Amino acid sequence: MSNSQVTIKLTSDEALVLSHWLERLQMTDLSRVVNDPAVWAPIHRIAGTLDKALPELFAPDYDQRLEAARQRLRPED
User: Mind giving me the DSSP string for 35-48?
Assistant: First the structure.
């Protein structure tokens, strides 16, 4: 078993949108969405890392920042 780590780089928009989605996912019954409990640990770890790295999560205009990030990430039709 290897102890090497994997680094994932995200833009701040990607991180903000992913953090919000992971928060919503964790508020659900994970066993209904993710059928392998081994996946829960990395989900919680990624979510926790994003929470620490994103001061925007605590900004008074969080909802507006999140929506702006979503708009920038959506593909143009």
Answer: S-GGGHHHHHHHHH
Please work out, in degrees rounded to the nearest 5, the angle formed at the alpha carbon of residue 47 by the alpha carbons of 43 and 49. 120
pLDDT in tens, 4-62: 999 999 999 999 999 999 998 888 877 777 888 888 889 889 999 999 999 999 999 99
Rounded-to-integer distance, Cα 65 and Cα 33, Å? 27
pTM score, whole prediction: 0.84
Tokens of 31: 């066993």
Q: Where are the domains of the chain?
A: 12-73
DSSP three-state, residue 49: helix
